[in-house]
Automatic annotation (TrEMBL):
NADP(+) binds at residues 11-16, 43. It comes from Gigaspora margarita. This is Pyrroline-5-carboxylate reductase. Keywords: Amino-acid biosynthesis, NADP, Oxidoreductase, Proline biosynthesis. Gene3D superfamilies: NAD(P)-binding Rossmann-like Domain, ProC C-terminal domain-like. It comes from the Eukaryota. It catalyses: L-proline + NADP(+) = (S)-1-pyrroline-5-carboxylate + NADPH + 2 H(+).
Length: 294
């Protein structure tokens, strides 16, 4: 059973480890300011955060970012895991097996919960690499977790206990939206919401380029493009309207929007974006199969 004041070890604290820590720390600090009176934040009050990295250079970066809020260890994964109640596995998929099977790790992991955010590494692979008493849950978050605008999909084995599921839901609900799905969907989730911020930024940058082409200053163009995309996305999420309806409302007969839309369609933008997710999904499904030291 997970204590309400767990010690959390971020095993691998790069882009995503830092994004998750930033989001949780923002949430916990906000909760402290409000005497834990905000719903959701009151459930758990993590006592300590430990970040494990391999090199001194990245250790220093994590220290610079979080100061004394996080204990950072380099090249001492077993020590970090020993001290923790819950391990958030955030290394590259290719080195996970080596890390989880190193000397002393099995003992350190006994009876603990690992939440893996690794793309393409299945629950059954993870279970093979850890002791039978170790519980494993997969989560696929994305980088907007850093500003608590994340999207995370969680997959739990059928025998997951309520405490472990509740804790995992808590972690990621402090970082944005959360959904629970069957593991068979996780590669598609990775290709869509995991990779999605990168795809969205290419669209955003391209729209801004158009504005710059037509004379807008770069920073104005970026603001307009970002807010237009955010506004449209929020309308879909808030109203539940189909994107086609929102698009049609913008489109005045014989107006400028339909002229732009037809130009987009000429460029096969829909199939290009859909195939982008298809390709990312296909590659995600292979990431757990390569056990190289990349
Ligand atoms: N980036 C994204 O948007 C998303 C990524 N993911 C998944 O998250 C995981 C991490 O990705 P990302 O954050 O981008 O990767 P990064 O390369 O940014 O981070 C990897 C981290 O692992 C550390 N690390 C490397 N080797 C070891 C080791 N032997 N022991 C302990 N720590 C080690 C690195 O430290 P050091 O620098 O010292 O080597 C670094 O802190 C991947 O599995 C990916 O599939 C999931 C969703 C979104
Ligand atoms: O590119 C990757 O492999 C990771 C997984 C999802 C987002 N980034």
């Amino acid at each position: 059973m997970i204590t309400t004041t767990p010690t959390i070890c971020i095993l691998g604290c790069g882009t995503m480890g830092k994004a998750i820590l930033t989001g949780i720390l923002n949430d916990v600090n906000e909760a402290i300011k409000n005497n834990y009176s905000i719903p959701n934040t009151a459930s758990f009050k993590p006592r300590k955060f430990i970040a494990c990295v391999s090199g001194d250079e990245s250790a220093q970066k994590v220290i610079n970012l979080f100061g004394e809020l996080v204990t950072v260890v380099a090249g001492q994964n077993v020590k970090g895991v020993e001290e923790a109640d819950v391990v958030l596995l955030c290394t590259k998929p290719q080195i996970a097996k080596t890390i989880l099977t190193e000397d002393g790790m099995a003992e350190a992991l006994e009876n603990k919960l690992i939440i893996s955010i690794l793309a393409g590494v299945s629950l059954s692979q993870l279970k093979e690499w850890v002791p039978t008493s170790t519980k494993v849950i997969r989560a696929m978050p994305n980088t907007p977790c850093m500003i608590q605008e994340g999207m995370t999909v969680i997959s739990c084995p059928a025998n997951t206990n309520v405490d472990d599921k509740t804790f995992t839901m808590w972690v990621f609900s402090t970082l944005g939206r959360v959904r629970v799905l069957d593991e068979k969907h996780l590669d598609a989730v990775t290709g869509l919401s995991g990779s999605g911020p990168a795809f969205a930024c290419v669209v955003l940058e391209s729209l801004a380029d158009g504005g710059v082409m037509m004379g807008l200053p770069r920073e104005v163009a970026l603001e307009l493009a970002a807010q237009a995309l955010q506004g449209a996305a929020r309308m879909v999420l808030k109203t539940g309207k189909h994107p086609a309806e929102i698009k049609d409302n913008v489109t005045t007969p014989a107006g400028c929007t339909i002229a732009g839309l037809l130009t987009m369609e000429d460029g096969k933008i829909r199939s290009t974006l859909a195939r982008t997710v298809q390709e990312a999904t296909t590659v995600a499904s292979t990431l757990g199969k390569v056990q190289a030291n990349k």
